[in-house]
Amino acid sequence: MSHPLSRAPIQDALALAGRALIALLFIPGGFGKIAGFAGTVGYIASKGIPMPEVCAAIAIAVELGLGILMLVGWQTRWAALGIAIFTAVITPIFHGFWAVPEAQVMMQKQAFFKNMAIVGGLLVIAAFGGGRWGVDKGQS
Predict the structure, then answer these.
(1) How many domains does the chain have?
(2) How confident is the model at residue 6, as a pLDDT?
(3) Residue 8's pLDDT is what?
(4) What pTM was computed for the model?
(5) Of all helices (H) and strands (E), which one includes residue 36?
(6) pLDDT above 70: percentage of residues in the chain
(7) What are φ and ψ of residue 137, in 5° steps?
């Protein structure tokens, strides 16, 4: 007897919903970084990261560019993997709960582990694809 969620239309609907919900986090963030580019650059620079303008541009490309690719389901696995790597790299830089004042530990710890959970979801998409309801129909 098969699992009730193993029927393709349900799987594809869930995959689309998952892609859309994850994209909902990254795509508006990319637009926000464009609209507030100077502020984004300043925030990145405040963390001691070299070439903050270049890093801000990379963040926009990942969040907006790869976020849109994942949403529409084109090169879905690669887009998810790219966003996962980006998120895994930036999370300890921007949410280092071990190096903040006590009043910020809980908030930064929550953000850190939320991001790691998002990385986990992105890795699942990278491993299994985004379903057939996308431009690449789950092929990439």
Answers:
(1) 1
(2) 62
(3) 79
(4) 0.91
(5) none
(6) 93
(7) 50, 35
Q: Residue 19 pLDDT > 90, yes or no? A: yes
- For residue 57, the enclosing domain spans 4-128
Interhelix angle 52-60/76-94, rounded to 10 degrees, is 140
Q: Is residue 29 helix, strand or coil? A: helix
- The mean pLDDT value of the chain amounts to 94
Q: What is the dihedral of CA 115, 26, 107, 45, to 10 degrees?
A: 100
51: left (phi over 0), alpha (psi -120 to 50) or beta: left
Nearest to 134 by CA among 3, 4, 23, 2: 23
CB atoms within 10 A of CB 28: 13
Residue 134 lies in a domain: no
DSSP structure class, residue 74: S
At residue 137 the predicted structure's pLDDT band, cuts being 50, 70 and 90, is: confident
Q: Is residue 136 part of a domain?
A: no
